[in-house]
Amino acid sequence: VTAKGTFYAQTEVEGNITIGRNLTVQxxxxxxxxxxDISIGNTITANDGTVSxxxxxxxxFVGKDVTAKQGSIAMQTGTGDITVGAAVTAVKxxxxxxxGDGDILVGEDVTAGGNVQxxxxxxxxxxxxxxxxxxxxxxGKDVTITTxxxxxxxRTSITSTGGSVSVLAEHGDITVGEF
Length: 179
Known about the structure:
Distance between the termini: 43 Å
Strand content: over 45%
Order of helices and strands: EEEEEEEEEEEEEEEEEEEEEEEE
Structural class: mainly beta
Shape: globular
Radius of gyration: 15 Å
Largest sheet: 8 strands, parallel
Strand order of the largest sheet: 1-4-7-10-13-16-19-22
Helix content: under 10%
């Protein structure tokens, strides 16, 4: 699927969004569910705009590469998990992942020319890396990871080439390295 402009997919009330073909858009790409999952099964590329995935209640699963060449990538769920199982790359701007209740699991590389921000605003944890030693986070500026009620485990590397790395667990543990 190729769009000269913008690609927009939304389910109202209840329903899932599944991307089963490569998708390239010139501008922005937006997917939104009120109650349902978003599953990326093929490559997504936004040449000039942003990539946005939002669920009110549901999981976001990235199974194939997601790239924004000029814009940012934002993933947000009110209740549900965000799982990164393929590369997520914002070449020039930011990657943000926000979960209300749920976990953020980074099993493949997340790269941003700008900032990388991962937030769990209510209850849940953040895990960077998996048993195969994949899932690195690299930012051209800052990397910020925050949890309110849950911990953070960094099993692989987090790199900021032009800024700081901050990890804050309001009520939870922070573990860096093997455990």
